[in-house]
Inverse folding.
């Protein structure tokens, strides 16, 4: 991880059944990861409204993660189908406005994938550090 | 061209196939939407500048759902009516479309890529404009350049809601842009990019390329360029064009099996 | 079913934007900006877009009311006018003309605003008259 003195603020929406449980497992297993993450638990990643993510960026979050169950494993059958379509599209729209799409991370972490949670968070934090502070609020 | 439209309108009214025909008229020097009935003179009929017919059809049908209505529509109106019918805002059952294809000059004014309705009664189909100068300029910039461009453009926003009010597909009774959680009352301009990015996302599966957003904007914000970029991103991900098919639901409300994301993009 | 579009000038500020009031069966249902008007050219501010909302609003007062024992009661026009004139003259006698302020409205006609200004300055003798468009 590069050390440019910048500590990003990262917000993560985690679904109750898979990614939040995966995060829990990572914690219980004492897996180390950067502390820049703030987690909001939702019942399904499909509950995450696009407005929330846009507001997060507008308010100064440097990176936002949306983590859900793997496709096919959603507790609500196809909630994560909506998540995938929504946030792949939002990433493109952010790019159209000039906000780096890499600031938005969409990934699937199951309840047993503590290791993957650590991996995804570490990689994303590193990428956001490279990108620098949120350009919307930067002077 | 206009005489042919007059002929079609008077035939429909005389034969009783339509109770009323929605078109445009020049009244005392100004152009307005006009509902022609049987016996009305068609001398004041005009075809330009265009007004968005979708919301007017909606208000007429709300008042009189059984009315046999005919409408002179351009490509964008046709697509808007399809999208409104899809969402049960209007019914196309009693609506007779009079399809008008746009001229090259008209297509250029709206920078429209599809200046023709599904079926054309008057005019010739022409290829649309694929890109305006402004769109090419923004698309060519890097992220930093684009961000500055949009920041400068949206700094002029006076939050008149003209883009929202003029859009034929902005139909939500409880519009999220009026929700204090996202767009606070009294903040002008609205903090970048909330207002416009939320609207752009909500319309990404509905935008019919009518250009009303930009023509309603008192601050000359290049909204048609923004929505052209939105449509391009959307069609890159989904094999779906708003207004093309009344029976297909938007990909954003269906599962991946029903409307998949294009391969190699996610 | 009658659907008409009536061209009018916005009642609010002095810009003079024009729009069409959409009227269906005698009821004003919405606003469509006038695209060919040389001042507004198809654009409006937020006040213009919502200019139709007060016309049929349920909050509009339709009868004269006087507050009696803390509650508004419907009264006749004669009673309302007699009461208003009597109280205005009493207060003017007791506290002077400048104890009055007159606040008019952009939703009234120019002629009505002129009359209120005359009542304020000519009848009551105070310059304390203003108009909501100044706010």
């Amino acid at each position: 991880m590069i050390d440019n003195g910048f500590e990003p603020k990262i917000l993560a929406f985690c679904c109750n059944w898979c990614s939040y449980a995966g995060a829990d497992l990572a914690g219980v297993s004492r897996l180390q990861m950067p502390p820049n993450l703030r987690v909001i638990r939702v019942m399904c990643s499909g509950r995450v409204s696009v407005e929330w993510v846009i507001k997060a960026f507008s308010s100064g979050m440097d990176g936002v993660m949306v983590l859900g169950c793997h496709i096919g494993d959603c507790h609500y059958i196809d909630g994560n189908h909506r998540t995938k379509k929504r946030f792949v599209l939002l990433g493109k729209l952010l790019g159209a406005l000039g906000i780096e799409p890499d600031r938005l991370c969409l990934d699937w972490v199951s309840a047993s994938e503590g290791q993957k949670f650590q991996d995804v968070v570490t990689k994303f934090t590193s990428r956001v550090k490279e990108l620098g502070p949120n350009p919307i609020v930067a002077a | 061209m206009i005489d042919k439209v007059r002929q079609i309108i008077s035939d429909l009214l005389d034969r009783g196939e339509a109770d009323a025909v929605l078109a445009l008229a020049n009244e005392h020097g100004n152009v307005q939407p006009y509902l022609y009935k049987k016996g009305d003179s068609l001398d004041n009929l005009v075809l330009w500048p265009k007004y968005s017919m979708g919301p007017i059809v909606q208000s007429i049908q709300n008042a009189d759902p059984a009315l046999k209505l005919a409408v002179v529509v351009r490509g964008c109106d046709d697509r808007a009516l399809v999208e409104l019918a899809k969402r049960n805002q209007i019914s196309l059952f009693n609506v007779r479309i009079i399809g008008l294809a746009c001229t090259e000059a008209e297509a250029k004014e709206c920078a429209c890529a599809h200046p023709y309705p599904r079926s054309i009664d008057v005019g010739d189909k022409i290829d649309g404009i694929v890109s305006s100068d402004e769109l090419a300029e923004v698309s060519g910039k890097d992220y930093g350049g684009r961000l500055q461009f949009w920041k400068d453009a949206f700094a002029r926003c006076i939050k008149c809601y003209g883009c929202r009010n003029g859009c034929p597909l902005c139909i939500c009774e409880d519009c999220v842009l009026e929700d204090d959680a996202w767009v606070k009352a009294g903040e002008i301009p609205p903090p970048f990019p909330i207002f416009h990015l939320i609207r752009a996302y909500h319309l990404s599966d509905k935008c019919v390329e009518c250009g009303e957003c930009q023509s309603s904007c008192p601050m000359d914000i290049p909204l048609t360029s923004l929505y052209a970029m939105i449509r391009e991103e959307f069609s890159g991900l989904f094999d779906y064009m708003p207004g093309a098919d009344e029976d297909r639901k938007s990909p954003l409300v269906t599962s991946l099996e029903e409307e998949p994301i294009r391969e190699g993009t996610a | 079913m009658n659907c008409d579009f009536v061209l009018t000038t916005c009642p609010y500020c002095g810009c003079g934007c024009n729009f069409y009031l959409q009227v269906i069966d005698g009821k004003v249902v919405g606003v469509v900006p006038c695209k060919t008007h040389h001042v507004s050219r198809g654009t409006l501010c937020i006040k213009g877009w919502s200019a139709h909302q007060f016309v049929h609003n349920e909050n509009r007062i339709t009868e004269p009311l006087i507050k009696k024992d803390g509650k508004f009661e419907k009264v006749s026009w004669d009673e309302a006018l007699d009461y208003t004139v009597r109280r205005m003259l009493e207060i003017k006698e007791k506290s002077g003309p400048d104890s009055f302020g007159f606040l008019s409205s952009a939703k009234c006609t120019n002629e009505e605003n002129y009359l209120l200004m005359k009542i304020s300055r000519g009848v009551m003798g105070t310059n304390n008259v203003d108009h909501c468009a100044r706010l």
Q: What stands out?
A: The domain at 3-49 of chain C is CATH 2.20.25.90 (N-terminal domain of TfIIb). The first strand of chain C starts at residue 3 and ends at 9. DSSP finds three helices and seven strands in chain C. Chains C and A do not touch (no CB pair under 8 Å).
